Sequence to fold (934 residues):
Amino acid sequence: MDYKDTLNLPQTDFPMKASLSVKEPERLKKWADEKAYEKMLSVRDRNNPYILHDGPPYANGDIHIGHALNKILKDIIIKTKALEGFYTPYVPGWDCHGLPIELQVDKKLGSKKAEMSKSEIRKECRKYADKFIDNQRQGFIRLGGFGDWYNPYITMDYKYEAKTLQELYRFFDNGGVFKGLKPVYWCTSCVTALAEAEVEYDNHTSTSVFVKFPMKDAFKAKFGLKESDRVSAVIWTTTPWTLPANLGICANAELEYSIVKVTDTCNKNLAAGEYLILATELIKNLAETFHMHAYDSVKTFFGTELEMVEFKHAFYDRVSLGILGDHVTLEAGTGLVHTAPGHGQEDYEVGLKYGLEILNPVDDHGRYKRNVELFAEESIYKAGPKIVELMDEQGSLLSHSDISHSYPHCWRCSKPVIFRATPQWFIGMENNDLRKNVLSELKKVRWTPAWGENRITAMIENRPDWCISRQRSWGVPIAVFLCEDCDEVVTNHDIQERVLAAFREHGADAWFDMDNSAFIPEGTKCPKCGGTHFKKETDILDVWFDSGTSHAAVLEERPELSWPANMYLEGSDQHRGWFHSSILESVGTRGVAPYKEVLTHGFVVDGKGRKMSKSLGNGVDPKEIINKYGAEILRLWVAAEDFTEDVRISDDIISRLVESYRKIRNTARYLLGNLYDFNPDTDMVDFKDMLDLDRFALVRWQTVKKRIYEAYDKYQLHVFYHSFLNFCIGDLSSFYLDILKDRLYAYKPDSRERRSAQTALYTIVKEMSIVMAPVLCFTADEIYEYIPSSKEKKENVFMEMFASVTEYKDEANTAKWQKILEVRKEATKALELARAAKIIGHPLDADIIIGSDEETAKALKADEGIERIFIVSEVKFADMNSMTDCHTSEDGKIKVKVTPSANTKCERCWTKSASVGHSAEHPTLCTRCAGAIA
RNA sequence: GCGAGUGUGGCGGAAUUGGUAGACGCGCUAGACUUAUGAUCUAGUGUCCUAGACGUGGGGGUUCGAGUCCCUUCACUCGCACCA
Fold:
């Protein structure tokens, strides 16, 4: 008789091979058909919400590995919170306005763009963004994330655009906004502002000049000079046309400067006896440039001495103020930098610091304005040489020459661009104490990792006013009217409501398409000058303002959501981006942070820690991994890595994860395979009636579960990964399940011994599927399907709750098994040595003799027989002092001797037992097996 | 350049307050089993030629003792834009 058929071997249709790339799409469809996300929410308490507010990705390009990290992480947290019982609606979003899309559309339109109206261009941009939203949506869904994917928030939705404007109006109403000047790249040929991305660097020949700025008499004494002494600071510039805008001379506080007295020179604009101020280190070279044949250094000092010292402009009767800036170096020039706050970024910043005027004497077409002395209405390009000539004539020019250097040019017309101050709208950091209030709100937010708080705090402390205006087409217009006579902003509740209503109905295009009369009630007058003619502001908003208002446009508007968010979760770059703009907006309008907690992740880098780039060719495409291994592997990757730092990905890392996944899957498969005849409603054994080993297994699982819950709570997903995997490998596969085989296979199907084991297996596999569901959502749901039906079984795993941690009162048993584990370790070691020595093959060929102290020997008892625990045929005990020729533990407290068993092998369970032959009916079986098939 | 972060085996990651570095797992190498079988179990595995020595990016320092604290240096990542 073939007794194999009488064993209860595992049976299951749960496939060993996951075929994830094929099966995942099927499951996604199933979830969509069954409305799994909605059902997950339907069993939660709406009064107990957990809102993770999605930071909108930009609607451009395919999804990349960084998106995958971010979206998977969000989904894991959402599912974790859902399984904890929270109501967790997730509304994904997309950021749609902005330059990158406009530039793409520009490229597509080419020269046609010039003939198109603003709203025609905007329609093209909208089409473009729509396409990528759909594209990215499919990519995100494929990752397994739950959410309201077909009803997302989109910053170009009409209602969202209206809401964005409404938020802006709040700033206008509370005095948070002002109009100022700020330098931008400007093409005088195309008459437009340019972005950095629209600027190309190319060689350009400029005239470089060295110019004297005489020190005002009142300051000479400070440097030990008489009022009659001629002393000048010397500056250098390659853009002489910006000199009419000069308002300052910038020194570096840490550099050393000298006053030198000229004693011999052939420079016609320099006289013996004249004094010059120059950076000490550069004097030697400059002396040559200036034809200064001999000179004496009369005084040296640090740059700090020049702060607030007044100089006279080279050719205007105007003060140029001595100021300090870190950007001043000795690489070129004199160590003293000509500063025109209206014509340079650094000049602008340092100018703001010293309260200099942001002077811009140049108009849109590159001509000096009418009020500019000497050069009124002259083109700056033509005026350049004239300025040089003038300075040479009146004696302030020390030297000039042509130099060729890299200079920004317009990408459209290839002409050189200028840097020029233009009127801009700002949200003032000091208005309504915005900076102060944001800083105090930052402290109330929980930042993970903790250094995020320092990072964003430093940024808020140092940032300038927020420039929210852009001279572009694709965005939400700053929809306010200005008085044509006095430039005053004309806005009131009535006008605002009309504009907002038009936005809600027609989108922001209404601002460009509709006439002023549609928005301005008849009889409206400028509150300042009483004027009755108004013009539209046509600048659009910085897109950071769009996404910064999402807390208002989404959380406050959607009935299923609530404000503020529990969590914002993005990459660490968003300290500068969305975390930043959101809290500025929220505190500026509501005085409170829009989030309670901020979690950040690092960036995805390659296996060597380098960023991914096209030139290095080290990029990893999530689609490739999904198609080859499945999204589940990416999810496992997210969980396995410590995402608070930069996250590495490589073929090696992925193949490790594939192996881990197989282990988890096979463990689950084995558990399921042994439950084919188990009915949870009728076959469960009470804990107290279970075999001691099964009770121990359940106790172990509680410990692991607890650890995992704590890890989830702290977002330490890699702790979940390691604990969970180790439980599968260490506790189940190589220990508990290995021992259990005999009991599951050989006992009567409905025996207490077998049902006890199945009760433990059922509990563990069911709870495991729930615990792993946030991370391995595809596999968890698949496992859950195969779990034996019961009254309690839900439609899918996401409708479950995390099983609570049961505090079993079974300490004595647990302690006993700890002891057994120690001895078992020595036994397996001894068996391995015996196997190597060819004494035995399979451990069931062996008998072992254990020598130990009395206490340990007493503990070595198990309900099913201690030999089952060691998976040997027989265990005997002996006085350890009498044992020779055996394995001894390192501490000498345990001895194990292995001998081949002399008994006959039971044909059914392969144990060698003295009882084989006792049964007349089954002479080749042991008593246990004979009984089991009776 | 400035601000922030990170450097531990082939890989993921451990190391309470300064106290045996590399737990645990993967991988790899051997072996066992053929009743989880494209599975499962067991043992070994930082480096160097052994005794022994050396090892937490490099170099200094504090200390009886440093992955951990201090100084310095290098590498990588993020941010400093009309840029999402």
Notes: Residues 675 and 758 of chain A are 6 Å apart (CA to CA). DSSP finds 28 helices and 33 strands in chain A. The two ends of chain A are 14 Å apart (CA to CA).
